Amino acid sequence: MATAEHIREAEKAPVIPATMQAAVYRGANDVRLETVPVPEIGPGEMLVRVHTCGVCGTDLKKIATGSHSAPRIFGHEISGVVAAVGQGVREFQPGDRLAVMHHIPCGDCFYCRSKTYAQCDTYKKVGCTAGFEPSGGGFAEYIRVMDWIVQRGTVRIPEQVAFEQACFVEPVNTCLKGIERLVIQEGETILVIGQGPIGILLSVLARRAGAKVVTTDLYPQRLTMAKAFGLDNSFDALRSDTVKTVRELTKQRGADAAILAVGVNGLIRTAIEAVRPGGRVLLFAQTVRGEATVDPASICVDEKTLLGSYSASIDLHEESVRFVMSGEINLEQLISHRFPLSRGVEALNLAAYPQPDSMKIVIQAGSTWEGHQK
User: The pTM is what?
Assistant: First the structure.
């Protein structure tokens, strides 16, 4: 971890180059390290030098399926330093350390009024880019932050908070939104299927909301990591029948709610069967359209509720910032692999095909200007 002296030295706003390195998406399963122009900024905008960008499963799915036009530069879990500000920007200056959101809703449309912010047309317009079609841009050295994100989607990083901790603001927000959707009551039993970094975050936040949390995963290494966060009530999904185990833990009733934190559609039915009559199931990782087998009587006769939660909520922005910046949980513990941008393609490949010991993977363009590799 860089010392404060390292950070202050790095923040002396070096000359902005004309070109930079970026991991450029060129089509399905095709990402290449390329030299591209540093994006130009306009009035009300900022240029941010990226330090750390977390690799998100949503971006991995876009890359794997080729669902988006190419070329693009993905990456949206961003922390970095202001390199330049456009005309009219007064609240920030070069050297400021920031975490940057890439989506902010308009606040006025039908979907915003109904608090379904992820369906707002302005929200769907990505407000950060490293070039090409705006797609976040965090897998590059610099990003252009557009005016509405400058105004409402950036947050200062306190001096004592590391870039790595700060890059969790956006994923924490998405998890808080999912927990809010479940309306957890004190003492309820919540099953969280999947203990990757997002599954652990959801589990920690469910416990924070007053739940008794039961966790499961295929990899014992991930359950060990979960225990480091105090999630001791866990079982190996390879060695135990999920539905049977959960019922044994709940006097045969079933969990009050289940969260599916892995994108395996075949587990939807398992999650539904693991909850009690009248229980709830939250689909959190099902971001690729497809089909799944569901017993309709479990929804009708057993009165179980199937819920979905996608992306972040502006209403939870301040809470997510407080949670991350306060250090209530040391989120850096979730990071298992740190790659410099020069190895960004390798980082994305590992994240796409995770190993038992791989958790959160980050790409750190800032590892060079901090004077060391991570």
Answer: 0.93
